[in-house]
């Protein structure tokens, strides 16, 4: 019974019990478990192949473990397939995150710009979201759900103000309202607005809708990243052409 409950017993009460926030209501926990049971054979097969790709492509552990912040600001260990070189520096990601939070620019991942820290096939795993397959472990443990805001890293959480932290009134998920609403085209503040909206509106119907449109959203995301890389690759060529023209003036 405890396995089924997950985070359902985590509650926040204020003003003598007038406000109550429940992490995983019964319908949400049951949906998570039902989908995992249906997808388990395929997920195990794909997971084994991806583990082999990581193991052969780069020395180091197959899984990457990182402390993340989830429901009501609680920390937990989040699992992913490792897509960076073992021991890769993290300062560049921290600076990139700080820029995204303050500059009002689209939330494009650092690896969309040919991140040298990536292992072979690491960019493809991250673009398709397959690196996050081990987070099904977090879902089974009740630390995450299939649908919800993305769990953030600790140093990002420390920069959030009170209005930003309202997004933690929902258990974090593998996919969510922000992820299917133009993820790479939205700013940090737009992400916060969508996550807070999900925390307020979450329902069985909304979760099912998000799950159904996740794959098309991932396809659009991959297409956007490819287009971005093609534009970046053409830019130096165009600049060389302009320089050559200027020499003939």
Describe the protein's architecture and organization.
The chain has 249 residues and is α+β, with helices and mostly antiparallel strands. It has one domain (2-239). The chain has helices at residues 2-5, 26-57, 91-103, 122-128, 135-140, 154-157, 188-201, 204-247; strands at residues 11-14, 19-22, 63-69, 75-81, 145-147, 152-153, 173-175. The protein has a three-stranded antiparallel sheet with strand order 4-3-6. Strands 1-2 form a two-stranded antiparallel sheet. A two-stranded parallel sheet has the order 5-7. A hairpin with a 5-residue loop joins strand 3 and strand 4 (75-81). The longest helix has 44 residues, at 204-247. The model is unreliable at 7-18 (pLDDT under 50).
Residue windows where pLDDT falls under 50 for at least 5 positions: 7-18
Major beta sheet, specifics?
3 strands, antiparallel
- Give the CA-CA distance, first to last residue: 79 Å
Radius of gyration: 20 Å
How are the strands ordered across the major sheet?
4-3-6
Please give the domain count: 1
Tally of individual helices: 8
- By DSSP, the count of extended strands is 7
Task: Name the overall outline.
Answer: globular
Helix content: 40-55%
Order of helices and strands: HEEHEEHHHEEHEHH
The overall pLDDT average reads: 85
- Strand content bin: 5-15%
Q: What structural category arises from helix and sheet content? A: alpha+beta
